[in-house]
Amino acid sequence: MSPNEFDRLVADAYARIPARFRKRLKNVALLVEPEPSAAQLARLGPAKTLLGLYEGRPLTKRSVFEPFSMPDRITIFQGPHERLSRSPAALRRMVEDTVWHEVAHYFGMNEEQVRASERRRRR
């Protein structure tokens, strides 16, 4: 898949996030990269696949008294998605799940909470 086509999948996944959440996403850059960097992978430990990554200060950890800060980043990695998906429909679902997952981290959910939320969302 071309990078532009994958970018469109990510944009479509972002657009499917309910408006009540999208409206609260402030100062967040949504990026697409071909692969995670060695430094990003090193944070995970061995034998892990990185589909997406939230880097920043979660909303629940912020204060109204904080000065301006650089944007948080949500990065979606094209290569791992394509290697794991079995069909275009599976790729679309996987990208959507990854975008939701990383947005949940922005809202302060830890990994266990995100996974529980994902299970509820799939029902």
Write a brief structural summary.
With 123 residues, the protein is of the alpha+beta class.
Describe the structure.
- The protein is α+β, with helices and mostly antiparallel strands.
- The chain has a single domain, classed as Zincin-like (2-Layer Sandwich).
- It has six helices and three strands, in the order H-H-E-H-E-E-H-H-H.
- The protein has helices at about 5-15, 20, 40, 80-85, 90-105, 110-120, and strands at about 30-35, 50-55, 70-75.
- A three-stranded mixed sheet has the order 1-3-2.
- Helix 1 (about 5-15) packs across helix 5 (about 90-105) and helix 5 (about 90-105) crosses helix 6.
Secondary structure layout plus pairing:
Blueprint: H1 3-15, H2 19-22, E1 28-33, H3 38-42, E2 52-55, E3 72-77, H4 78-84, H5 88-106, H6 111-122
Parallel strand pairs: 1-3
Antiparallel strand pairs: 2-3
Helix pairs in contact: 1-5, 5-6
- Order of SSEs: HHEHEEHHH
Give the biggest sheet: 3 strands, mixed
Q: What's the domain count? A: 1
Top CATH class: Alpha Beta
* Amino-to-carboxy terminus distance: 29 Å
The CATH topology name reads Zincin-like
- By DSSP, the count of extended strands is 3
Indicate the proportion of strand residues: 5-15%
Q: How many individual helices?
A: 6
> Quick one: overall form?
globular
